[in-house]
Amino acid sequence: MTTARNRPLTPTELDRFGEELDALRARTVAQLGRVDADYIRRVVAAVRYISLFGRLLLFVGAIGGAFVSWLFWPACIAGTVLLGLAKILENMEVGHNVMHGQYDWMRDPHLDGKTYEWDIVATGDNWRKTHNYMHHTWTNVRGMDDDIGYGLLRLFPEQRWRAFYLLQPFIAVVFAILFEWGVAIQELRVGRWLAGKTTHRAMWRKFAPVGRKMGKQLLKDYVLFPALAGPFFLPVLIGNLIANVMRNIWTYTVIFCGHFTTDVEVFPKESVRNESRGHWYLRQLRGSANLTGGKWMDLMTGNLSHQIEHHFYPDIPARRYAALAVEVREICGRYGQHYDTGSLPKQFAQVIWRILRHAWPSRPGKRRPLVRAEAVAEA
Questions:
Q1: List of residues 6+ apart from 198 with CB closer than 8 A
Q2: Residue-wise over 117-141: b if at least 16 C-beta within 10 A, else e?
Q3: Cβ pair 92, 103 in contact under 8 A
Q4: N or C, which end of the chain has less CB nearby within 10 Å?
Q5: Percent share of the chain, pLDDT over 90
Q6: End-to-end CA distance of the chain
């Protein structure tokens, strides 16, 4: 789809665009300090206490409900919702952001981006490779960014169509429910193994740490905590399961809204050859979309409601993105670049449209170039 709201920039404009965004980054980094450290520590504490209260309510509902019948449903539902909320906050506001190195300057070993391990079945090491490096470096570059459809979905007409994609409306729903498992096996490249391009020995070496992490998470949520309820284990087990699914669906929704709305673009490999800083920023802008909704939306999305700012500055504490967004949007406007933002229902409706439309054969439309062709010729 052609995005007429973006005007091609001259090389000089592109350089200035990058310089302005770099200067904004430098000003923000210079302001980092105690307020940012206090914030992330408060969120970590909130995750701990919300999770604790959620689990206690599950036990109260499971055990107490056997003796006081009216207690069962309110306590189990409240406990499940609180546990799901804690898992969302840990996943998005803590785990994702900490592993980007946003708080490395604090020198806190518990918030070290290189060693932090989050509360899902995916390993932190694999995520740091597939997401922090591959996705954030080569955002929406076909053949370099595995997050374009995650190897399961065709979301852009530039992706070659196969009959398999006719199933993607169903696959997309299953993927949302099991999102943490999809993330866990992404770096394993199972398709290459099934095609015989990876040996069984090599696959086993790659799977071993993932398998250990999966086992640890399964043991914690579906064996250990339910076992503490003794013969009343079933409500606790189901509550843990629903809380994990809540986290998975919410994470999937936020990530897809940030990357697969109508105006988001993909790029060929040749587009990043000799890529300048300004060109990199422009590619990040055209490969991202934001969500409106205010402070609660920002908190619950780990501030990925500001996906554009996150792609510009992945290692700056995400609580800064709302303030950065004001200047980023103004800069984009001066350079004639569309700043893609909208409500959650609006953006997710566009994602659903992509999933349904591109399950069928489609051809790419004409897109405006990032840089003016005549300016390139002159240069």
A1: 189, 192
A2: ebbbbbbbbbbbebbbebbbebbbb
A3: no
A4: C
A5: 85
A6: 29
Q: How much is the pLDDT for 189?
A: 86
Contact 165, 105 (CB under 8 A): no
Residue 210 and residue 126 in contact, taking contact as beta carbons nearer than 8 Å: yes
Tokens for 284, please give them.
């990040």
User: How far lies 5's CA from each of 1, 139, 293, 339, 366, in Å?
Assistant: 12, 21, 24, 9, 13
Domain ranges within the chain, ordered by starting residue: 11-31+122-357
Beta bridge partners of 371: 9
Paired tokens of 257 = 């809204």
| Mean pLDDT value of segment 220-241 | 96
Inter-residue contact 310 to 318 (CB < 8 Å): yes
**Ramachandran region of residue 268, left (φ > 0), alpha (ψ -120 to 50) or beta?**
beta
> pLDDT value at position 124?
95
CA distance 71 to 68: 6
What is the SS3 assignment for 186? Answer: helix
List, in sequence order, the alpha helices (H) in the chain: 11-31, 34-59, 72-89, 97-99, 124-127, 136-137, 168-177, 179-186, 190-194, 200-219, 225-228, 233-259, 277-286, 294-300, 307-312, 321-334, 344-357, 373-378
Name residues whose C-beta falls within 8 Å of residue 354's C-beta, 6 or more positions apart in sequence: 155, 156, 260, 261, 262
Amino acid letter at 250?
W
Tell me the residue type at 284.
Q
- Torsions phi, psi for 176 (to 5 deg): -65, -45
Residue 164 neighbours by CB under 8 Å, 6+ apart = none
**Helices 72-89 and 34-59, interaxial angle, to 10°?**
150
Rg, the chain, Cα only: 22
Rounded to whole angstroms, the Cα distance separating 353 from 262 reads 8
Longest dimension (CA), the chain: 82
For residues 104 and 316, give the distance between their C-alpha atoms in angstroms, rounded to a whole number.
10
Question: Are 89 and 118 contacting, i.e. CB atoms less than 8 angstroms apart?
Answer: no
Give the number of other Cβ atoms within 10 Å of residue 328's Cβ.
Answer: 23
